[in-house]
Specification:
Blueprint lengths: L1 E4 L1 H9 L9 E7 L35 E2 L2 E6 L4 E6 L2 E3 L10 E11 L1 E18 L5 E3 L10 E4 L1
Antiparallel strand pairs: 1-8, 2-3, 2-7, 4-5, 5-10, 6-9, 7-8
C-alpha cells in the first residue's frame, strides 16, 4: 500500500484552511485507471475515476459510497514522525452480480459543499487492484502499530 499526500490538501491542513481537528474526513474509492497527481486539489479532479458500476457503492458528492473515516493523529518521538491513521472501513452488499470493475485506490477527502469545493488530502494506492465483485469490500489501512496510514518525518 503506497500512501501519498496531495500537495494542496496537505498545505490546507497546515495553514488551517482545512483544520484537521474539526474536519470530517471521508474515504472515496477510485477505479484502477487513475494516475496519482500530487497537484490535484479538489475532488472534481478525480471524480471521473470514482467507482460507479457497483451496487454497494454510490459515488458522487454526498453519495452513500463515500464513508466517513475515523482519523487519528499522533507524534511518535521514537521515529520522529507525525502519523495519521485511518480506521479500516467496510462496504456491505458490494457485489451487483455482474461487476468486473476493480478498485485501485482509496482517497482521503474532506467534503465541502460540492466536489469542486471538496479537498483531496491523501491517496492510498492498493498494492494490487481489488475486485469489486465481492459481497463485502474491506479496506485495511496500516495500523498505528505499523507506523500509521500516512507519515510525515520531522
Amino acid at each position: 500500500m503506497t500512501t501519498r499526500f496531495f500537495g494542496p490538501g496537505l498545505l490546507k491542513l497546515f495553514n488551517g484552511t482545512c483544520p484537521i481537528a474539526s474536519a470530517t474526513f471521508k474515504i472515496m474509492l477510485l477505479d484502477d485507471t487513475y494516475t496519482f497527481n500530487p497537484d490535484h486539489e479538489f475532488v472534481s479532479s478525480v471524480a471521473g475515476d470514482e467507482l460507479a458500476d457497483t451496487s454497494g457503492y454510490a459515488g458522487g458528492f454526498a453519495g452513500a459510497g463515500r464513508k466517513t473515516a475515523t482519523v487519528t493523529v499522533d507524534y511518535d518521538a521514537t521515529t520522529d514522525k507525525v502519523r495519521l491513521t485511518v480506521a479500516d472501513l467496510t462496504w456491505a452488499s458490494f457485489d451487483d452480480g455482474t461487476s468486473t470493475d476493480t478498485c485501485g485506490a482509496a482517497v482521503l477527502i474532506v467534503e465541502s459543499g460540492s466536489d469542486a469545493a471538496s479537498h483531496l488530502i491523501a491517496h492510498i494506492d492498493f498494492a494490487a487492484d481489488k475486485l469489486c465483485n465481492v459481497d463485502t469490500f474491506t479496506v485495511d489501512f496500516p495500523a498505528l502499530a505499523a507506523g500509521g496510514t500516512l507519515q510525515l518525518a520531522v
